[in-house]
Amino acid sequence: MDSHKQKAIVEGLLFTAGDAGLSRDQISEALNLSDSESTDLMSTLQEQYMNDDSRGIEIAVFAEKYQLVTKKDLSDYIKLLADSPSPSSLTQAGLETLAIIAYKQPVTRVQIEEVRGVKTDGPVHTLLARGLIKEVGRNEGAGRAILYGTTDEFLDYLGLKDLSQLPPLPEDLEEDEKEDSDLFFESLKNGLEQKN
Amino acid sequence: MDSHKQKAIVEGLLFTAGDAGLSRDQISEALNLSDSESTDLMSTLQEQYMNDDSRGIEIAVFAEKYQLVTKKDLSDYIKLLADSPSPSSLTQAGLETLAIIAYKQPVTRVQIEEVRGVKTDGPVHTLLARGLIKEVGRNEGAGRAILYGTTDEFLDYLGLKDLSQLPPLPEDLEEDEKEDSDLFFESLKNGLEQKN
Amino acid sequence: MEYTVKLDAFEGPLDLLLHLIQGLEIDIYDIPMADISEQYTLYIKAMSVLELNTASEYLVMAATLMSIKSRMLLPKQDEQWEEDQPFEDDPREELVEKLIEYRKYKKAATDLKEKESERSLHYTKPPEDLSTFSQPVETGEKTQIDLHDLIGAFNKLMRRKKIKKPMSTRITRQEISIEKRMNEILTTIKSHKTPRSFSELFPIAEKPHMVVSFLAVLELVKRQEIHIMQDHNFSEIMVKSTEGVSLVGQP
Fold this sequence. Notes:
Mean pLDDT of chain A: 82
Shape of chain A: elongated
Number of domains of chain A: 2
CATH topology of the largest domain in chain A: Arc Repressor Mutant, subunit A
Number of helices of chain A: 9
Pfam families (chains A, B): SMC_ScpB
Family (chains A, B): Belongs to the ScpB family.
Low-confidence stretches of chain C: 166-173, 246-251
Radius of gyration of chain C: 29 Å
Number of strands of chain A: 4
Largest interface: B-C, 66 and 63 residues
Oligomer: heterotrimer
Structural class of chain A: mainly alpha
Keywords (chains A, B): Cell cycle, Cell division, Chromosome partition, Cytoplasm
Number of helices of chain C: 7
Strand order of the largest sheet of chain A: 1-2
Radius of gyration of chain A: 23 Å
Order of helices and strands of chain C: HHHHHEHEHEE
CATH architecture of the largest domain in chain A: Orthogonal Bundle
Distance between the termini of chain A: 47 Å
Number of strands of chain C: 4
Subcellular location (chains A, B): Cytoplasm
GO biological process, one term (chains A, B): DNA replication
Order of helices and strands of chain A: HHHEEHHHHEEHH
Strand content of chain C: under 5%
């Protein structure tokens, strides 16, 4: 594999990983490189991203993981972006978080983050401030994490009488199909057992 | 602002926006450019990303929004490290229903059923739940049946910039023309014979 | 065990008709009604498990076919020759139009499927959390949420692929790769001179293992590395390596 291809793969992987980042092991595994080879590759890339003025992202290392981040000197422009949606509408991050809470409530922040794959403090905060979600209790067990659920106002905004009026998720609709394939494997298994 | 800086800002902004994407307006605003200037800048960048073999991401336009996505030929490497929690691809019934809605929109469920020759409640439901179609109004006249159309999520799901990028609706052109003229003469002949 | 043709194989009566027309190599513009309605009836009789909600649609079509057939058998009437109705209507015309219209969208569905799978090769990332940049807004304005936006956001999220958690947190789960099963299966088959039975390829009766084994077999067939045979219905399926075997009919 030539070095161009390697660099492209690393960029693609880091991009997909988002702020979960990638360990050196994961990079070595994906590229089939030794540890020292991937360390070298990563320092080359770090330098390249850093020194290229036409690039807006760089490779940072947090907690032994490589991840892509925007360059610091762009923060003014990103702030503009943050302010650009009208204050009364939710960002994509906000909508995603709200959707997870609506469908999976009661749910902890960690559970939301597992589904989204990114930190979710900000959106949860915004949703609380806007009265769309609220704390509905504490999780049993260690940590006793806060559980979130939607408010009456949330239903109000969407014009719903109660939560049962939320449209069904595709997963629920496709459960029937899943059962079919389960049945298929069930009978395949039975058939095989009878044979043996 | 020099063009390097512009490119860096665009990359940083696109990275930040993730799959929510950025409209041309947002880019023009952030860079203080005219619409045509930002269109030009974006096509230059699209080409640059695409042609650079050491880059793993490219700039796609889905539903009229620019967004960064990994390049197609890297999917094998990314699959190695990625989970795919994504919902299953659509069933044949779902695809047929979606095709009819996409090409004939706005369209009622009864009209869809006329083409498919079968009840279509299930697929319509699934497509609604997956956010690929939505109610776009009510039919005039008796019954005021719900009219369906496609969503931005539909465009994103299929990787289309806008509806004009839908593959042309297949027509049985060659066959049609040949057969049509055959039929024409056939019936002309029949007609003449009857007349005599 | 009873042999049943699954009605699910077809999307409806139109789909079944198209299938028959193609199979019998019939000209869609000149359908021999007697043949087609006979074939159609045979098919829906074979589909002994008729699901209640779709069965009626198949039966309605059977009736339509019969009616067209009988209209075509009627002796042609000497009709009044009228300017605006120069030719006698073909009783099949409406059906043919429907079939052609349906075929168009069936093909379009295939095109969309292609787009779908192409798009699925592109990976994306979630939007960054920008709330640290913007001040919490204390407007009296109501937050605007649209149900469609909410569903759209959720689906986008579900579509997004995530990088797996690092290996250390996955110790409990054993991953079986298709590639690995393919190699194991090939080794099993090649280590014997005689063909192996299909069920031998599923030694571990656990769902994940069986699924992977099944996919591995399919992939091997696709790559033409193994050959699958069955003497007659319900007899044991046998598997052999294609290595060193010249396929019948090939020079």
